[in-house]
Design goal:
By secondary structure, the protein is mostly helical. 65% of the residues lie in helices and 12% in strands. The protein is built from 6 helices and 3 strands. A hairpin with a 2-residue loop joins strand 2 and strand 3.
Length: 144
Amino acid sequence: MKDATIDYVLRATWQAVARMYNEQAKTFDSTMAVGFTLLSIDPKTGTPSTALGPKMGMEATSLSRILKSIEDKGLIKRKPNPKDGRGVLIHLTNFGLEKRKDSKDVVLRFNEVVRAHVTDEKLDCFYEVMETINKLVAEKNIYK
């Protein structure tokens, strides 16, 4: 893999992880996108609908589709935001909390297995590299 470009390794690895998460999600009659959404909603206070998109790095259209789908499945409910009458808070239902726990368990298992196979030093380097890439991209330092 040393001859592969950085973006290829990132993309190929993420696609493999996403496939793995989707396979696991199927066993819970769900998808990775639904699990990610449930994990992004504050289980105690709910999350403003307008904050979810940026938090998840998703476009509003895609997020709206997922929210409608999980609302239809009874995983979330929308409530008026008491701090902003124009806004809506997304809250997890009891069923949504159960499915959120399933998603969290899957993610924690992935982390546990990776940590068992990769030293703390190597993980620290990985996080440092990812932070640098994110910073370069966010600050538009790649293509000026």
